[in-house]
């Protein structure tokens, strides 16, 4: 009897932006549901900080892809595993691991297009876009915590984010207390990691907790913390202008590399979905509506160049062109949104709402 084939496991969280990139990749590559086990990690309860998860990914982030390494030379098949701990590497691995020739160990017969850029020049463009999306100034998770620039907005945001950060703080405090009491044995490095995370989480807990209070009712320390939060939030949204403008310029359109979907599109799709979601857009918005909401949310009259031909964008994306004036123009990011929104991968990951 043949041994069961060891499976890869993708650790993800449904609300995570970066974990959405490999989820999109699984669909685009036509992986069968029997090929990769999906394992949910609850970020709201700080499951990603637990020692069992840190053994897979010491940074405590999702996604992580755990892949079997098989030693087939030994008489007993022995499986070892390796963990791939970063979105870009995971997506490249998933792209290489299923090709048009893969017809074994899967129930899927879906075509498996290559998502690797087809030329050296495209590889450079793709690499630059991915790097920009993962850069500090574009950090979609920082913007998630910082999506309030006035006291009123902070009050609203705190309602949803306070339970999230409080749950994480509770877990971090418990892990640290257990390691101090000796109930849990971990390295000094792990303890230091938890301490850093606790300090960062605590900052948000304090500011969100005080969000209901008027400025006059705050202690000096709390007032300073609120002012510092609002200052940082404003700076983060201002910094986003350059990122959005650079993307709108560098993307060839409607996909990052023109008419062929590639790995960079998956990073951009997840990133833009998060920025749109923070800006109050919804999954049913078309590209122009979603981009208009992002521009309005960024504020200060910010607007993206609208020089890309709508008809051209649709032709390249394989979307019907009927009813479009030849002179009609839109931003490349709007054209990108319309092109990815049509895809089954997008519908699977974002059909129930942006995140
Ligand atoms: N550079 C990493 C970043 C991944 C990342 O930041 N993931 C977020 C979720 S989208 C996370 O797990 N954050 C840890 C936390 O929430 O504690 C990658 O690209 O995989």
From TrEMBL:
InterPro entries in the record: Glutathione-S-Trfase_C_sf, Glutathione_S-Trfase_N, TCHQD, Thioredoxin-like_sf
Domain of life: Eukaryota
Annotated GO MF terms: glutathione transferase activity
Source species: Lentinus tigrinus ALCF2SS1-6
Signal peptide extent: none
Residue ranges annotated for the GST N-terminal domain, each copy included: 6-102
Name of the protein this chain belongs to: GST N-terminal domain-containing protein
UniProt-listed CDD domains: GST_C_family (cd00299), GST_N_family (cd00570)
């Amino acid at each position: 009897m043949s041994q069961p084939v060891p499976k890869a496991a993708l650790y993800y969280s449904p609300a995570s932006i970066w974990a959405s990139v490999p989820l999109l990749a699984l669909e685009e590559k036509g992986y069968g549901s029997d090929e990769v086990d999906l394992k949910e990690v609850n970020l709201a309860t700080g499951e990603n900080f637990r020692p069992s998860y840190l053994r897979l990914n010491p940074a405590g982030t999702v996604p992580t892809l755990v892949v079997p390494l098989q030693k087939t030379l030994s008489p007993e098949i022995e499986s070892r595993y390796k963990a791939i701990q970063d979105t870009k590497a995971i997506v490249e691995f998933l792209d290489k691991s299923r090709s048009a020739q893969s017809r074994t160990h899967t129930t899927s017969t879906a075509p498996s297009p290559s998502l690797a850029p087809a030329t050296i020049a495209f590889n450079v463009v793709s690499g630059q876009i991915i790097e920009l999306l993962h850069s500090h100034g574009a950090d979609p998770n920082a913007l998630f915590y910082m999506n309030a620039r006035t006291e009123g907005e902070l009050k609203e945001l705190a309602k949803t984010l306070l339970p999230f950060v409080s749950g994480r703080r509770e877990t971090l405090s418990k892990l640290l207390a257990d390691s101090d009491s000796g109930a849990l044995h971990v390295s000094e490095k792990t303890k230091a990691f938890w301490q850093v995370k606790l300090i960062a989480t605590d900052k948000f807990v304090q500011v969100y907790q005080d969000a209901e209070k008027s400025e006059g009712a705050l202690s000096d320390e709390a007032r300073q913390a609120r002012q510092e939060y609002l200052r940082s939030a404003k700076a983060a949204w201002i910094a986003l202008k350059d990122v959005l403008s650079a993307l709108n310029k560098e993307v060839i359109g409607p996909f990052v590399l023109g008419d062929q979907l590639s790995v960079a599109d998956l990073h951009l799709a997840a990133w833009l979905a998060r920025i749109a979601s923070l800006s109050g857009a919804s999954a049913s918005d078309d590209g122009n509506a979603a981009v208009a909401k992002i521009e309005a949310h960024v504020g200060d009259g910010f607007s993206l160049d609208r020089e890309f031909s709508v008809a051209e964008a649709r032709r390249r994306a394989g979307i019907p062109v009927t009813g479009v004036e030849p002179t009609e123009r839109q931003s490349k990011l709007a054209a990108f949104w319309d092109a990815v929104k049509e895809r089954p991968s997008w519908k699977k990951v974002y059909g129930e709402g942006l995140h």
